[in-house]
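Much of our argument rests on the idea that a fold can be written as discrete symbols. This step matters because it turns folding into a mapping between discrete strings. The record that follows shows the chain in one-letter code together with its fold in token form.
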Amino acid sequence: MLFPLIFSLVGLLLFILIGYNIIQQYKQKIEAEKRISIAKQRAVIVEVDELLLNATRMPFSKSLLLILQNRIRNALKIMTSISPATPAIKEHLSNTDAQIQQIQNHYTPPDESVFRAPESDKEALALLQVTKKIRAVLRSEHAKGKINTEVFVAEDHRLEIMQLKINLENSMKRVAEAKMNEQWGSANQMINKLLKVLSSITDKDGYLERKQQQLKEYKAEIKTHLVKTNDAELQAMKEKEEEKKHDLDELFADKKKW
């Protein structure tokens, strides 16, 4: 009678232990998923914060700033739902709401026709990477339905023009170097490519209009040098032919004497 009771108690204890382990494993799984989710949202916030640091280096529209700030806000709301008792998250959310309100009511977008050219190839590359990352964020937010198609198209086009301006500045530096080295043919080829790109843009701002005019002036200047170079080459060829003719005349003149 005693043994069945002992076996029953042991079985019950094992059942409780197994159940307890299952519950603990489930809790650990839930906590791990929460940590992963919070880490993912923190990564989103860090990425957007890094992009926002470039607002002083390149013009950000009001719409773009709101899109980026709302991306932070959405990440914080997800974190709050996962960990509602964390004061730091609540404070960050409150500060973000205040920043969004400030942008909506008081932000004045910069004049996009005034573009500060990158001072080095390194800075230009960094700005290109920033614009690519922002365009990726826009695509992500549009795919989630956070921004409408009209806003997405307008902002993506703005960033595309920004990339063009950065590449244009770098290309014009190479044109200037080619001119300095009197590589007129190479400079002319680069100018023709740049003018072709600019002529395809129908909504050029003041900056692009000025660059297009500058390239046309470069082209006229280089054309003069190319004409001079061709004339000099033709003259050199003519002189060479005259020299050959003179040598032949002298040769046959000697033969006549024989």
Notes: Residues 154 and 237 are 57 Å apart (CA to CA). Residues 10-110 form one domain. The chain has a mean pLDDT of 84. The helical segments are 2-52, 62-82, 87-106, 121-143, 149-180, 184-199, 206-257.
